[in-house]
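Hey, I'm writing a tutorial for new members on how sequence and structure tokens pair up, and I'd like a real worked example in the thread rather than a made-up one. If someone can provide the structure for the chain below, I'll link this post from the tutorial.
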Amino acid sequence: MTDQKVKSCLLCGVGGQGTVLASRIIAAAAMEKGLRARTAETIGMAQRGGSVVSHVRIGEEIPSPMIPRGKADILIGFEPGEAAANLSYLKEGGTLILCDREVKPVTAALGQSGYDGSEAVQYLKSKVGKCCVIDVDHIFAECGTPKVLNVAVVGALCASGEMDLTIEEVDRALELKMKPKLIDINKKALRMGAECIK
């Protein structure tokens, strides 16, 4: 670990994006490394596309699994609007990893809202100095499925250096958490996510 005793990552998105699994992969990688990890989720109406927020804290002495506002070292936004809604958790000088594709709420799909995630992306880029935007369509095209998004963002997290985890450590966590037939494609997504930071 670095000089901080606790490293904190907040992941936010909507139901179905794999936010909770991503947080568990991060925690599993940390524990495999011999570190302590605590997680917590706020799920709400996740099954219907509602907001999902996952907290991951890694360190020697973790006072609470919940990250106080303004204390997250890294914020991972699976969806631009959700990232904007949770920006207050990110500490000053923290890192934002942001997926560039919006998930339209039901009101937008029914024509009652003009929500466009590109405005949220531009807003976040103007507010956060360390902002990495992930081209999710490119990753989906290369991997052949959108179901790898959660692992791709973990790859970006590894490359950021904010949580002191390596790609190889996450590889081992994937081998523990996933069915064997899914491991290779997810390892590919992990590395593509890391390349987004470089």
